[in-house]
Amino acid sequence: LVPAVPAATASAAPSRPADRSVSELLTQLKTLYRKAEEATETYNATEEKLREQRTRTRELTAELVHARTELADSHDDAGRLARQQYQGHSTLSSYAFLLTLLTPHPDSATDEARELERAAGREATLVRRLTRGERRADTIATRARTALDKQLSLTAKRKKQRDKVEKQLRSIEKLLAALSARQIAQVAQREHEETTKAQRELLDSGALGPAKSASPPAPTPGGGTRTTPAPGPGPATP
Fold first, then answer.
1. What is the pTM of this model?
2. Pick the CATH number of 19-203 from 1.10.10, 1.10.3470, 1.10.287, 1.10.20
3. Structural contact between residues 17 and 182, judged by C-beta atoms closer than 8 angstroms
4. Running DSSP on this structure, what letter comes out for residue 91?
5. How many helices and strands (H and E) does the chain possess?
6. Which spans in the chain are helix H?
7. DSSP H or E run through 36
8. Residues 41-77: pLDDT tens digits?
9. Angle at the Cα of 159 (from 156 to 163), degrees rounded to 5?
10. Contact predicate 48/154, CB 8 Å
C-alpha cells in the first residue's frame, strides 16, 4: 500500500500556474506589473537626482580648482614680498630707512616712511587675502566632498533599484513562460473585459462630465421630424 500524503504537506505545495484560475493569474500579473512600474518610477527619480548631483559635484570641483589657484597665486605674492623684505633686495627695508633718517635730507626720510607704510599696508592686504582664500578653499572642499559622498550614495541606491526592477521583470517573464497559449489568451480576454467594464462604469458615474450625444431631429409642424429631402427633379415647367 502507498502511504497517504499528509494534508499539511499537500497544502504547503505551491500551486502551479496551470492550476490557477484566470482571475488568479490576472491578479498576479497585475500585481507584478504594478510593482515593476513602481520600481521603475523610483529608479527614474533617483536617476534624475543623480544627474543633478553630478552636475553639482562638477561645479564645486571647478570652483575648488579656481579657489586653490587663487590661493596659490596669493602664496606666490607673499613669497615675493617676504624675499623683498628679508633678503635685502628692497630699498624699503628697515635698515635702509634708518640710514635715511641719518641723512641731512628730512624730506627723503618722510617719503621713505610713507613708502614703508604703503608696503606694510600691502602686506596686511595680502595676509587678509590669504586668510580669506584659505577659508574659502576649505569651505568649498568640504562642500565638494559632501557632494561627492551624496553622488556615490545615489549611485549605490540607483544600482539597488535597477536590480529590483530587473527582478520584477524576471518574475513577469517567468510567470508568462509557464502559461500555455490558451491561458495567455484567456488572461488577455479577461483583462480586456475588466478594462471595458471599468471604463463604462466611469462614464456612467459622470466623473468625466456629461456625455455628449447627438441633438435629436427638429420637430416639424405636423408632429414629425424634419429630414433633409432627397435630391430629385425640379418642378415641372408649365
1. 0.57
2. 1.10.287
3. no
4. T
5. 5, 0
6. 7-12, 22-86, 94-101, 106-177, 181-205
7. helix 22-86
8. 999 999 999 999 999 999 999 999 988 888 888 888 7
9. 145
10. no
